Amino acid sequence: MPIPNLLRNAALTSLTLGGLGLAVPARAADVEVRAPADTSVSVRRAPALRFGEKGQMAISSDVGLSVSNTSVSGVSGSSTVLVLRPAIDFFIADSWSVGGFLGVEYASAPGGSSTSVSIGPRVGYNAELTKRLSLWPKAGLAIARTSQTDEGAVLPGGGGTVVGQSSEGNTSVQLNLFVPIVFHPVDHFFLGLGPALDQDLSGDSKATTVAVRLTIGGWI
Known about the structure:
The strands form two sheets. This protein has an eight-stranded antiparallel barrel with strand order 1-2-3-4-7-10-12-13. Helices cover 13% and strands 57% of the residues. A hairpin with a 5-residue loop joins strand 11 and strand 12. It contains one helix and 13 strands, in the order αβββββββββββββ. The protein is mainly β. About 11% of the residues have low confidence. The chain has two domains: 32 residues; 163 residues, Porin, CATH 2.40.160.20.
């Protein structure tokens, strides 16, 4: 091969290898480029939801045993009451709720017992005290049907004869108040405890019940 051709080939080979050598560091440099140490990246997070915001729905129930003092037409006495009162409440605005409930209540007292079924609407306002505590008073009106049974008395020496046993029913309009302090241990769950008042506004025998009740529920 002539010498000029050898020189030309050597020159082309040298240029090609040099170009590859320049290309590889350039690619490596592109990979290793990093942001300056003082560069900060901010991540925007959605704000945490809190109980009582507009659009939420709460499902709860006032349930359990309550020790109460009841006054019926001026005659007072203590009784033990079992209450089950499931309810649904919607927050139509921040903190303001409207809803309804269905209640079943069984009361046992010396000399008799009573069963009451009630249904009605209610309104409430949730006041946030801390991140985990709030005060959620609620007031409502209900139609209540109460059936009462008087156990009567057994005549001495009468072979177990019972006298004075009777039963009667009463329909009334009730005012219902409940003021629980609500604890939110985790998101979407709550439980609370507070005083409650059920006051008959109509009916033959107007009853006033004052109790301490528990509420438990969740929200979405």
